[in-house]
Design a protein that fits this description.
The complex is a heterodimer of chains A (about 675) and B (about 60). Chain A is an all-alpha fold. Chain A has a single domain, classed as Amino acid/polyamine transporter I, CATH 1.20.1740. Chain A has 27 helices and no strands. Chain A is globular. The mean pLDDT of chain A is about 90. Helix content of chain B is about 70%, strand content about 0%. Chain B is flat. The chains are: A mainly alpha (about 675), B mainly alpha (about 60).
Chain lengths: ~675, ~60
């Protein structure tokens, strides 16, 4: 294509993106079509990929097409395998896309669609995509080393320790909050609980089929499992309408929490691979299929957004979680904009599959853009709901009242009209007794998704099926995150304890397995239990904690990235990682300060604890929880400060010439794939 | 410029890449490589050995939020 035509096309993309962003940002008092968000997102990603990621690849990282990757040099057919770039892209995307980009934007929709959308786009293009790309490339140049190893080698011993603590913290808090999302979605829902319970025998059946009847045919087995899950959703309707069966599956939040804790422990401590591996495959199958279906649904139906661009809750008085739009929108949406957890994937399996160094751009930067698009779709799913419905589902009883009439009246007084009759009709349409007080994002996302799907496939008659499909989809892959996370956490604790007493580090020694599993499950189980017993719904306290922990890990990753760029002798390009790092530090420090010290009891842990202590019926456990959360937040922020200080000292030493600028990369070896088309 | 949609060869290539990505995500390619590496035919025993080999690695692989 002639150069002039290419320039013209990119000018058109830029103009279209600017028009879409202006429409999204400037429309007031009238509803807009969801396609404006889609167009704004696609144009922003296209420009970001074409220009910014290319600049980083060429100027900052100087990707070398002649340099062999560890997949080529260390190829062993097992961990290190040179793989087609599109295949690695799919593999990487499947690993980074979890419940976060679905839940975070739904919660942040309480501010309106604008703050969350702008953060998702800017955060991804200038932060998340950059982090994933840079960490992936640096891991590729270090034989696939993990983030913790790179932090230790390039930043210092303290950096390695902080990275380790950050990973453990994020795993514990993530699992607690994810489990809470599932509990709030399934409590008093016999249909949903039945469907999820059925995934256990279905997974076992898949395991037998895969191991005995069709060894290795995972796709075929997953498709079979998917059909069975669809039958289970259909069967859930029967279960919910049959009183004798419904009684068994109508569980309180506490009962569900205990069951999930037992499940987590069993998944970590018992040899239940026949259950876990097929569930993992089934979860991935459903996840990829549903994301594709949702994208098609939004494009085909281009629904109208009923949520305003900004709500009154930007002032910090939001019912879903309390706190001003800055900084809380930016820690509520982590995955989808920038997520430290991705740095673990980018320095895990993916660098061992990259065939050409130049392909790191497409895989690292590109896959994060795809996840960011999933977050935009979640934002759309939440904002197609009438705001009154959104707030009725997401507001805890402690804010809007227990009785439906009281809740509807409170929400209507906020300027989002809703009646108890409308909510009852909606609950009936989706096959539930009630949709009130279901904080956590999953039910609101499910109603939004059911709304979109039911307008295209099956009409209103299938609304309940689509709702429970969405609930099943979210619960299934949250439970997969939960069992995988518990095992990863257990191994990390075992590795650490092995330095104290060798037998504790043996992953096959049962006393160690039981003790470390109990430790990890006990830790996230405590947070889950705290959330379940919290009159404000738990999400108000726990989701910001999770956001802070996740952004702490991103801070570690960006400190590592900045340090390596400076050591590469390219300090003038350090702002590529330094600017998102400064932003994250501002966000995490401000959010942490508010969560600990804010005088508003709905925001500050300490003031909330003090308020509880001053009431006549002081609940000692709730007061302890508040103080514990304050200590955890404080510890996380001290970690941020420590890694920042150690990194800054390293930068100053290198920049002032007191330390030689030398990176610890693997030696250059010429690739044998040089004749292939670059990536 | 020919688009994938009106180019059967391009469409076939796109589909085969999609299938390859799915086979990688769902560990089918890893199993094929295992069979090739150990020079064995697919069987219950071979698949059990493959699962045993990759279970340890999979257990340490985090799933993102």
């Amino acid at each position: 294509m002639p150069k002039t035509a290419r320039i013209l096309i990119w000018i058109l993309v830029a103009l279209l993106g600017a028009l879409a962003l202006a429409t999204v940002a400037l429309h007031r008092g009238e509803q807009i079509n969801a396609m404006w968000l889609v167009v704004a997102a696609v144009c922003t990603y296209a420009l970001g990929y074409r220009f910014y990621s290319k600049f980083i690849a060429a100027q900052v990282l100087t990707l070398d097409a002649q340099r062999a990757t560890p997949a080529e040099r260390l190829e062993n057919g097992r961990d290190f395998v040179p793989t087609n770039k599109w295949v690695v892209f799919g593999h990487h995307f499947a690993a980074i896309a979890g419940p976060g980009p679905l839940v975070g934007p739904v919660l942040a929709a309480q501010f309106g669609y604008l703050p969350g959308t702008l953060w998702i786009l800017a955060g991804a293009v200038f932060g998340g995509c950059v982090q994933d790309f840079v960490i992936l490339l640096f891991s590729v140049r270090r034989d696939g080393k993990s983030l913790t190893e790179m932090a230790r080698e390039e930043v210092g011993r303290l950096g390695g320790l902080v990275a380790y603590v950050a990973v453990i913290s994020i795993i514990v808090i993530l699992l607690g909050v994810c489990a809470l999302v599932v509990v709030n979605a399934l409590k008093a829902s016999p249909w949903g609980t039945f469907t999820i319970a059925m995934t256990i025998p279905i997974a076992l059946l898949m395991g037998v089929y895969l191991r005995r009847l069709r060894p290795g045919k995972v796709l075929e087995t997953s498709a079979l499992g998917f059909v069975l899950v669809m039958l289970a959703i259909w069967g859930g309707q029967w279960a919910s309408r049959t009183p004798s069966v419904a009684t068994w599956f109508t569980l309180s939040a506490s009962a569900l929490a205990i069951l999930i804790i037992i499940y987590g422990f069993a998944a970590s401590a018992l040899p239940v691979w026949l259950l876990l591996a097929p569930r993992d495959y089934l979860s991935t199958f459903v996840k990829l299929g549903t994301i594709a279906l949702l994208a098609l649904g939004i494009v085909a139906l281009h629904p109208t957004l009923h949520m305003p661009p900004l709500t009154r809750f930007i002032d910090g008085s939001g019912p879903v979680f309390a706190g001003n739009v800055f900084p809380f929108a930016f820690i509520t949406i982590a995955c989808g904009a920038i997520s430290g957890f991705h740095a673990l994937i980018s320095s895990g399996t993916t660098p061992k599959l990259i065939r050409r160094e130049t392909q790191a751009r497409m895989v690292g930067y590109g896959a994060m853009m795809a996840e960011s698009m999933v977050a935009i779709m979640a934002m759309i799913a939440a904002c197609v709901l009438q705001p009154g419905i959104y707030f009725a589902i997401n507001s805890p009883a402690g804010i809007v009242g227990q009785a439906p009439e009281a809740a509807a009246a409170t929400i209507s007084n906020w300027g989002f009209p809703i009646t108890a009759t409308e909510m009852h009709a909606l609950a009936q349409a989706v096959g539930e007794q009630s949709l009130y007080n279901r904080t956590g994002g999953a039910p609101a996302f499910a109603v939004g998704m059911a709304h979109i799907f039911s307008n295209s496939l099956g009409g209103q008659a299938l609304m309940a099926i689509w709702y429970h499909f969405a609930i099943m989809f979210e619960a299934l892959f949250i439970l997969t995150v939960l069992d995988a996370g518990t095992r990863v956490g257990r191994f990390m604790v075992q590795d650490a304890l092995g330095h104290v007493w060798k037998p504790l580090g043996r992953t096959s020694w049962y006393p160690s397995i039981l003790a470390t599993s109990a430790l990890i499950v006990g830790a996230w189980g405590y947070f889950l239990w705290q959330g379940v017993r919290d009159p404000l719904g738990g999400i108000n306290s726990l989701w910001p904690l999770f956001g802070i922990a996740n952004q702490l890990l991103a801070t570690v990753a960006l400190c590592v990235a900045t340090t390596i760029i400076i050591k590469m002798g390219r300090p003038r390009y350090a702002p590529v990682a330094l600017v998102p790092l400064v932003w994250l530090v501002a966000v995490t420090f401000t959010a942490s300060w508010h969560k600990i010290f804010d005088p508003n009891p709905r925001i500050g842990f300490l003031s909330h604890g003090a308020q509880l202590a001053s009431s006549p019926s002081a609940n000692v456990r709730l007061i302890f929880n508040d103080r514990l959360d304050a200590v955890v937040t404080g510890t996380l922020i001290v970690m941020v400060a420590l890694i920042l200080m150690e990194s800054a000292v390293e930068w100053i030493r290198v920049l002032s010439g007191r330390k030689q600028a030398r990176v610890k990369e693997s030696p250059f070896v010429a690739t044998q794939f040089a004749s292939e088309e670059q990536g | 410029m020919t688009s994938t949609a009106n180019n059967p060869a391009g469409l076939t290539r796109a589909l085969s890449l999609l299938v390859a990505a799915l086979r990688e995500i769902f560990d089918e390619s890893a199993y094929t490589r295992f069979l090739s590496r150990t020079q064995t035919e697919s069987s219950r025993e071979a698949y059990a050995a493959f699962c045993q080999e990759c279970d340890a690695a999979r257990a340490r692989r985090p799933r993102c939020c």
